[in-house]
């Protein structure tokens, strides 16, 4: 017997949890079902150890402030990313105040965001970036220094026994955060269950077929027992990480034509040595290696997971043909279609530096990885650090009218023309900007309902529909209010 519901959410990560929470707030009478193929939610990209936990607000990530050929710095993308993260903060604040989320410290903690660079060229770039960003209201409080004594106060592990001679500089924003997206995802799903949402684990969606009435027939099977079944839904969201491409292809929607994904894995060096952890309270990013994707920018991070503090350094790129950590070795092959093979081949031809980078990363043994860490932390000792496997990221490849095919970093929502099905492709800064991404999805997929939902959306997100950076006083007020609600102290 086929069950009929209003909404099926595929994938038990932060995206489905966020969209499900929105829909349960906006349309509590709708029947919502969530399917996750693994034994629990938040076991893939949303798991705390599978991502950096950076509350991505472009405070420290240099790739969001590109430098033009004339040396000018464009802050527009950084401002946009920050605006999106502020929406996440407001939404989480509202849910904390409503008792939907637990104490803020269980999923978000104040952690300064820093950028540290070496060499005259990168120092000049960082200083120019600082001069541009310090004038933006959302970046108020950013600090810059080339003084080893000041940087030592910010992050002692960076400066201890660092050799003199090479120019270095750092910026610091005390208002940065570390987010445990695994804990956040679990809490959101716990709340959804309490509201009557059916969250089914060990259930793998196999096929999506559009019905004559515009609804979707979702064919699934239980991974334990292999029993099959079907569900009919008016709307389907595919938030299944790299698996989303496969399901969207199976749906047959024309909007997915030309898309492919390139999987990149990662590893971290981790330490829980309390003497080291006590000396580093920051997330410190630097410049990416030549050819490296933005998600592989090296950084030394404070992490707080399940109440335990630790430090992570990386990520170091790995390669697997799987689209998920728990995917199939055939994923990279079975995605190929006549409509996407051209764009994918063009991406391969146009990105030799990425291939060179990946090969170099794969050749690094533990000793070489420790050498990379010592560029940040000169006193790092091998015995203090263990290697930890991170998550899989599926970078988007798609058609481009001018180039034929491009490799796209970031996230992208693919939606059918009638809005009845949507899926998320891509990687960072997805989790941090999940709220903004899902707001965009609501507008595209539910054009008839969005006007009626907007009063409630403004209650949940006071800046909904407006920008903060253009209104300094409002920006400061929102930052202060969300910091208080989330118990964040600089």
TrEMBL record:
What EC number(s) has UniProt assigned to this enzyme?
1.1.5.4
Decide whether keyword Phosphoprotein is in the record.
no
**Record field: catalytic activity:** (S)-malate + a quinone = a quinol + oxaloacetate
Swiss-Prot/TrEMBL keywords = FAD, Flavoprotein, Oxidoreductase, Tricarboxylic acid cycle
Pfam families linked to this entry = Mqo (PF06039)
An annotated Gene Ontology molecular function? L-malate dehydrogenase (quinone) activity
> InterPro entries recorded for this chain?
FAD/NAD-bd_sf, MQO
For the protein in the UniProt heading, the enzyme class is: oxidoreductase
List cofactor names only: FAD
GO BP term, pick one? tricarboxylic acid cycle
UniProt pathway annotation: Carbohydrate metabolism; tricarboxylic acid cycle; oxaloacetate from (S)-malate (quinone route): step 1/1
Q: Which family does it belong to?
A: Belongs to the MQO family.
NCBIfam families found in the cross-reference section: mal_quin_oxido, PRK05257.1-1, PRK05257.1-4, PRK05257.2-1, PRK05257.3-1, PRK05257.3-2, PRK13339.1
Name of the protein described by the UniProt record: Probable malate:quinone oxidoreductase
Native source species: Microbacterium lemovicicum
Its taxonomic placement starts with:
Bacteria, Bacillati, Actinomycetota, Actinomycetes, Micrococcales
- Name of the gene: mqo
């Amino acid at each position: 017997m086929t069950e009929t519901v209003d909404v099926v959410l595929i994938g038990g990560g932060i995206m489905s949890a966020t969209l499900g929470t929105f829909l349960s707030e906006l349309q509590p009478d709708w029947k919502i079902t969530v399917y996750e193929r693994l034994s629990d939610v938040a076991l893939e990209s949303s798991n705390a150890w599978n991502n950096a936990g950076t509350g991505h607000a472009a405070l420290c990530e240099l790739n969001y402030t590109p430098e033009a050929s004339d040396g000018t710095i464009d802050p527009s993308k950084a401002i946009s990313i920050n605006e999106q993260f502020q929406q996440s903060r407001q939404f989480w604040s509202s849910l904390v105040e409503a008792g939907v989320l637990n104490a803020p410290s269980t999923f978000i903690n104040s952690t300064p965001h820093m950028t540290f660079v070496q060499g005259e060229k990168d120092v000049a770039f960082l200083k120019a970036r600082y001069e541009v960003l310090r004038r933006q209201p959302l970046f108020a409080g950013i600090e810059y220094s080339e003084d080893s004594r000041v940087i030592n106060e910010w992050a002692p592990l960076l400066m201890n026994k660092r050799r003199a001679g090479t120019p270095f500089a750092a910026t610091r924003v005390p208002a940065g955060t570390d987010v445990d997206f695994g804990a956040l995802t679990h809490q959101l799903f716990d709340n959804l269950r309490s509201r009557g949402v059916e969250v089914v684990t060990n259930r793998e969606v196999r096929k999506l077929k559009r019905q004559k009435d515009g609804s979707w027939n979702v064919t699934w099977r239980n991974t334990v027992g292999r029993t099959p079944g079907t569900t009919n839904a008016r709307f389907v969201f595919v938030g299944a990480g790299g698996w989303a491409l496969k399901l969207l292809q199976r749906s047959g929607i024309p909007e997915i034509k030309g898309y492919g994904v390139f999987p990149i894995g990662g590893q971290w060096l981790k330490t829980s040595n309390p003497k080291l952890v006590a000396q580093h309270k920051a997330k410190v990013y630097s410049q990416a290696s030549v050819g490296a994707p933005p998600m592989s920018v090296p950084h030394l991070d404070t992490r707080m997971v399940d109440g335990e503090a630790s430090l992570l350094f990386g990520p170091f790129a790995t390669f697997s043909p799987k689209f998920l950590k728990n995917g199939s070795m055939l994923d990279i092959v079975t995605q190929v279609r006549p409509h996407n093979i051209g764009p994918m081949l063009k991406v391969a031809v146009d990105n030799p530096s990425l291939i060179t980078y990946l090969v170099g990363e794969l050749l690094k043994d533990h000793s070489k990885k420790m050498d990379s860490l010592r560029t940040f932390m000169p006193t790092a000792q091998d015995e203090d650090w263990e290697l930890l496997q991170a998550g899989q990221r599926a970078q988007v490849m798609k058609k481009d009218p001018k180039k034929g095919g491009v490799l796209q970093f970031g996230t992208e929502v693919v939606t059918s023309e009638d809005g009845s099905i949507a899926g998320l492709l891509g990687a960072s800064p997805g989790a941090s900007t999940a709220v903004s991404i899902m707001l965009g999805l609501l507008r595209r997929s539910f054009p008839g309902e969005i006007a009626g939902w907007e009063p409630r959306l403004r209650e949940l997100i006071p800046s909904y529909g407006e920008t903060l950076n253009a209104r300094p006083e409002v920006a400061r007020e929102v930052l202060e209010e969300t910091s208080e609600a989330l118990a964040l102290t600089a």
